[in-house]
From TrEMBL, chain A:
UniProt protein name: Lipid II isoglutaminyl synthase (glutamine-hydrolyzing) subunit MurT
GO molecular function, one term: ligase activity
Annotated organism of origin: Streptantibioticus ferralitis
Role: The lipid II isoglutaminyl synthase complex catalyzes the formation of alpha-D-isoglutamine in the cell wall lipid II stem peptide. The MurT subunit catalyzes the ATP-dependent amidation of D-glutamate residue of lipid II, converting it to an isoglutamine residue.
Reactions the enzyme catalyzes: beta-D-GlcNAc-(1->4)-Mur2Ac(oyl-L-Ala-gamma-D-Glu-L-Lys-D-Ala-D-Ala)-di-trans,octa-cis-undecaprenyl diphosphate + L-glutamine + ATP + H2O = beta-D-GlcNAc-(1->4)-Mur2Ac(oyl-L-Ala-D-isoglutaminyl-L-Lys-D-Ala-D-Ala)-di-trans,octa-cis-undecaprenyl diphosphate + L-glutamate + ADP + phosphate + H(+); beta-D-GlcNAc-(1->4)-Mur2Ac(oyl-L-Ala-gamma-D-Glu-L-Lys-D-Ala-D-Ala)-di-trans,octa-cis-undecaprenyl diphosphate + ATP = beta-D-GlcNAc-(1->4)-Mur2Ac(oyl-L-Ala-gamma-D-O-P-Glu-L-Lys-D-Ala-D-Ala)-di-trans,octa-cis-undecaprenyl diphosphate + ADP; beta-D-GlcNAc-(1->4)-Mur2Ac(oyl-L-Ala-gamma-D-O-P-Glu-L-Lys-D-Ala-D-Ala)-di-trans,octa-cis-undecaprenyl diphosphate + NH4(+) = beta-D-GlcNAc-(1->4)-Mur2Ac(oyl-L-Ala-D-isoglutaminyl-L-Lys-D-Ala-D-Ala)-di-trans,octa-cis-undecaprenyl diphosphate + phosphate + H(+)
SUPFAM superfamilies in the record: MurD-like peptide ligases, catalytic domain (SSF53623)
Species lineage: Bacteria, Bacillati, Actinomycetota, Actinomycetes, Kitasatosporales
Family annotation (InterPro entries): Lipid_II_synth_MurT, Mur-like_cat_sf, Mur_ligase_cen, MurT_C
Keywords: ATP-binding, Cell shape, Cell wall biogenesis/degradation, Ligase, Metal-binding, Nucleotide-binding, Peptidoglycan synthesis, Zinc
Domain Mur ligase central: 65-187
UniProtKB/TrEMBL annotation, chain B:
Protein name per UniProt: Lipid II isoglutaminyl synthase (glutamine-hydrolyzing) subunit GatD
Pfam families from the UniProt entry: GATase_3 (PF07685)
Catalysis performed (reactions): L-glutamine + H2O = L-glutamate + NH4(+); beta-D-GlcNAc-(1->4)-Mur2Ac(oyl-L-Ala-gamma-D-Glu-L-Lys-D-Ala-D-Ala)-di-trans,octa-cis-undecaprenyl diphosphate + L-glutamine + ATP + H2O = beta-D-GlcNAc-(1->4)-Mur2Ac(oyl-L-Ala-D-isoglutaminyl-L-Lys-D-Ala-D-Ala)-di-trans,octa-cis-undecaprenyl diphosphate + L-glutamate + ADP + phosphate + H(+)
Keyword hit for Cell wall biogenesis/degradation: yes
UniProt keyword annotation of Ligase present: yes
Protein function: The lipid II isoglutaminyl synthase complex catalyzes the formation of alpha-D-isoglutamine in the cell wall lipid II stem peptide. The GatD subunit catalyzes the hydrolysis of glutamine to glutamate and ammonia. The resulting ammonia molecule is channeled to the active site of MurT.
Keywords: Cell shape, Cell wall biogenesis/degradation, Glutamine amidotransferase, Hydrolase, Ligase, Peptidoglycan synthesis
Pathway participation: Cell wall biogenesis; peptidoglycan biosynthesis
Record: residues binding substrate: R129
Catalytic residues identified in the record: C94, H195
Stored PROSITE patterns: GATASE_COBBQ (PS51274)
Location of the CobB/CobQ-like glutamine amidotransferase domain: 8-202
Subunit structure, as described in the record: Forms a heterodimer with MurT.
Amino acid sequence: MAGNSEPLSPRAKLAVTAGKAAAAVSRAAGRGSGSVIGGRVALKLDPELLGRLAHHLDVVLVSATNGKTTTTRLIAEALGAAGPVVSNALGANMPAGITSALAGGSDARYGVIEVDEKYLAGVARDVTPKAIALLNLSRDQLDRAAETRMLAEKWREGLAGTHAIVIANADDPLVAWAASSCPTVVWVAAGQEWKDDAWSCPSCGGVLQRPGDDWFCGECGFRRPQPTWALSGDYVIAPDGVAWPIQLQLPGRANKANAATSAAVAAVFGVAPKIALERMYAVQAVAGRYDVVSYLGRDLRLLLAKNPAGWLETFSLIDGPPAPVLLSVNARGADGTDTSWLWDVDYTRLAGHPIYVIGDRKLDLAVRLEVAGLQFQVCADVDEAVRSAPPGKIEVIANYTAFQDLRRVVGN
Amino acid sequence: MSDTSLRLVWVYPDLLSTYGDQGNALVVERRAQQRHIPVTRIDVRSDQPIPTSGDIYLIGGGEDRPQRLAAERLRRDGGLNRAVGNGAIVFSVCAGYQILGTEFINDLGRPEPGLGILDVRSVRNEGSRHVGDIMGDIDERLGLPPLTGFENHQGNTVVGPGARPFARLRFGSGNGTGDGTEGAWCDTVFGTYAHGPVMARNPLIADMLLKLALDVHALPPVDEQWYEALRAERIAAATQASA
């Protein structure tokens, strides 16, 4: 066992065993992978288990509003070049899920851990990471989540003085502000299409000026940090000025940004960009996202978009008209029960596509599309929508629980 | 830009556009366009002066700190008060509604002066946040069908003698004062806690603003199919949730 010099205490071992037993029961009962319940049981028996499990690992934490699951996967793939990796690859990103994932990786040398934005500061305290990657922050589930700037403030306070190397997106003012309290930051120009959560200076509240790719506050002088890594089209520019081509099976600008950040993280762990990027190419789909599934004679590409920033990035990667688009929106607990965010999404970008609408909140979407002046068809379910679309490929965009519903129906 | 077009001013989207507030502007624009009423939309950022010659002003919801910043800048600018003095129509939601009043509690826990355009005063509700679908009856003088919306706020707002409640709720907290009132209005100034956005769920509110601005009693009909379907669904949902 590489690096596992301090064996777990009897109590920690008991906690891991009990957690695994609970997960097995949960799986047998058909209630999902059991990773969350297992972690919950284990953490109850040994509240410091997370720190103990991470003790022998070189850990990187990944947090953001969007792209954290994919980036976690890309980094895990890259670090695999240096040694065995344990990761919460399925997106169970709160302390219980993380504990459960780590409990399964006693042989690993590296821990690549996705963390829910609200828990980042706490998990960073518990596991003493070597690196922390911060991608973006934007509005998401406002009926139950903290306000976006409050999240940035929690990051800023929780990470101040961390010994971790922080890899942060210089193009997101909220992230830049959160990270600028950390002693060691590697700034990445990873881009951020969505700008509507950062028009006021996170530091002083002044109006941010945003000429081109730059941004600065005219009042207090807080400005975009100078990046050492940069995404430039299909390339990532390393600190030595070398441009490395990013070739991925995953589509879209946002995933190139995730890869650029992942390359910067890999470098912290001694994995060179060339090797890191080559390994990232292997990633085809992440927890069902981006997967192409054959269903009723059509090819459905499954795309997850949970909030306005996510929808914006998704619109930029789908095939152009006349590719049919199927949209599904729910508003259950995990989605946020307020559908107002639909009005922050510029659906006129879908002009020219045949549009099919399903999901619990298809009527909210119908009014939204009507007001956008688009043609669309409201359907009872996936089958009706797919049958209504012309044969060939369909771009399917859904929010969180709608995406899970879809995966169940189309057998992905 | 035509001189005769209706001027729709969206106040401070950089600070007060957190809950899909652009939707209200989009619905007003769309329903005007369907009636061939030319509309010029003017989005005013908080470092720009508020034009005083607008016909309809929309001011939306936001987080606590942006709300204080917006109130400070609007007071300093004075344009919205002058516009109301000229008879402009103002429709405000949530944080914007509180700003129009005489006072609210800011993010620092201190009383913050509002614009005094609407006779309401807001304090912070000490209990849990008001979150969920709401439904009620709009003041009958306005001749509108029932109100449906989604509230998400921590404010309690008392309507003073210079204004009237906008609606009486059957479900939801509204002004949070326990008397069932929701929002407030006086002449051409309106305030509500209803997101949704409120015009998407109550398009006849958008029509009311258009009629006030154009000084007409009726507008040509438009296709209400999807609005009606959504309204029916949300009213039923609010009714069931509280049953």
